[in-house]
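Record type: ASSEMBLY
Status: queued
Input:
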Amino acid sequence: MADLKPTLIKNKAVVADDWTVLRLQAGEAAHNVKVGDGKIIVPLNVWHAQRAELRQRAQRGVWLAGHEPFEDLGSDLAHFAVIAVDFPIFTDGRGYSLAYNLRVRLGYCGELRAIGDVLRDQMFYLQRVGFDAFTPRPDRDIHDALKGLSDFSERYQPSWDEPLPLSQRVPRKGAKA
Amino acid sequence: MYRYDQYDHQLVRERVVQFRDQVRRRLNNELAEEEFRPLRLQNGLYLQRHAYMLRVAVPYGLLSSTQLRMFAHIARKYDRGVGHFTTRQNIQYNWIKLEEAPDILAELATVEMHAIQTSGNCIRNITCDEYAGVAADEIVDPRPYAEILRQWSSFHPEFAYLPRKFKIAINGATTDRAATAVHDIGLNARIDAEGRVGFRVLVGGGMGRTPIIGSVIREFLPWPHMLTYIEAIIRVYNQFGRRDNIYKARIKILVKAIGIEEFTRRVEAEWADLKDGPGTLNVAERNRVTTFFTAPTYTPASNDPGPNVQRTGAPAFSHWLKRNVKPHRVPGYAAVVLSLKKPGVPPGDATAAQMDFIADLADQFSCGELRVTHEQNLVLAEVRQADLLAVWQAAKMHGLVTPNIGLLTDIICCPGGDFCSLANAKSIPIALDITERFDNLDFLHDIGEIEINMSGCVNACGHHHVGNIGILGVDKNGEEWYQVSIGGAQGNDTRLGKVIGPSFAAAQMPEVVARLIHVYLHERIENERFIDTVQRLGVNPFKEFVYATPINTEASVIQHHVEARAYG
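Status: finished
Output:
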């Protein structure tokens, strides 16, 4: 098991994951936790605390909890290769609005990744609001989770994936006179 | 009424496939119960005391005879022959097997029905006035807007995991029959000085543990902005609503906590990005959906004799005309309320046989359409006045003409502790006891208009806060008690009732209601309804009389054992 390469779902396929998510352990502090070399997705508070150093890296990644103020990322936003949104539990829907606002309001175009309690049955909606990458919960089969992306073939309402409502995309008939 | 096109059919079918697979995975234990629970709830499936309950959506209360026959079929095939109509214009079945739920949803899909988002922390069924399209006081027909909202909110990807449930009601008439003030969002149609249609938008109303009347967030929102503005409201709620305490998670608590001014500021900030964007509703789509709600061809009224009481000589018919027949905007027509509040039957219940019969009645007399009211009755909205006697005679055979609409025995009542696992106390047997105590029709008519609303717990499915008499089941050390409030009202002058004092045992409740009525009859001045007298005198005279002498708790109470076989 140990030598299994980490994977994620990206652009509707299972691919190798070369990023590591850094989560602060008990006793660790944002300002002095050591951020290893390579592609690391750091917590938002670590980004703020070590911004000067982290900004020097070629590949930057940050993760936010659903309630964290994304506006603080400001001009850094465009320079992240990855932004991840953490779902502490799948029923916490704040991450959906956060993702939508990152994409639509702030115009973030890099990878937007769902991490944490990410499960098959939420994947369809997650991709609609802006996520293009997913790391399903490690105890679940990632190939099974992938199926969740194709639960529906049509959409009534606009969101990030589809800016136009159904009625503006296809001809829909009224009642027969 | 609205008919599905290929896209509606496709989405609902795909939902059935999705849920069937989720049920399969649950039964195989691939899905844990806590992972499955929100999924089944968003398909209307609750786990109750004895079995699963399935809540099927009746979008804005509008139903075809074909759909009602399907309800009857489902009651027979998958339940125990009964359906229960709810205060949110839906229908519930109380004896459902999990493994059969996908089949039921597949059958419903064939008649353009579903159970999507009838529960769970998402946008629920949109409700509106049961007399929409026929009401004499209508400003704007709310049904096209309700259907547009139904589609927009169905499978909304961002709002499926809100802090708590979210209910939207639309009223299009001068009289609010949709209880808009006690919804998360209430829309009241208006026409401004330039003749534009729009909505007065209320936000943060609700019942439950903390009843609050909604605040006005916009006096006039032109209709093209309906969807984007609601999206902005719900996005603010989704981000800032509390998630740490289920009892403080509704939008009303957020609005109260930060104040309507700050809440409005945040909504406006969200809306700034959306306003006039692609989500804006356009004329073509509004007009397309409106074509589904055009009026039938009416027969001119000139030769209709109208409801002729003398002709039949039956006082029962005359009572029924007075209570159960409502005005229609077209001369010569009327809306007929079929009472599901017959003494001895749980309020809002209809048997499969009754549903089949009502479907036939709708085909014969009312363009094949029906409405479900939030008072848990059914309405035939397009009846020629010349046919009223025939409708009455036919419906009488099936126990559907109890002339009690708006009277004391037209009780709004949740399923309560007999079925619901949330309930602290039973509600149906109390309603039955009260109904039995007031079985004299002349007396009922003398008492006049009064609304008794009862809920088996603080979730307030029975709308007890806005009942003229509100009854709330409470748990005291494992025993069932009932707290009584008076002075609540729904409609344009929505008010929350005041609790009169310590709660009562079940057996005392008919006497408590009788004493409240006694004070009213003694104190009323001419033409005053119960609610008017309460508002004039305040709670005290009622309270004093109710508690003046002890009420027997043993009482000669008939035990109503609520069980499917009791319906026959």
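Annotation: Residues 556-568 of chain B have pLDDT under 50 and may be disordered.
Annotation: Chain B touches chain A at residues 3, 5, 7, 10-11, 14-15, 18, 22, 31, 35, 38-39, 121, 151-163, 227, 235, 238-239, 243, 273, 278-279, 282, 284-285, 287-289, 291-292, 294 (CB under 8 Å).
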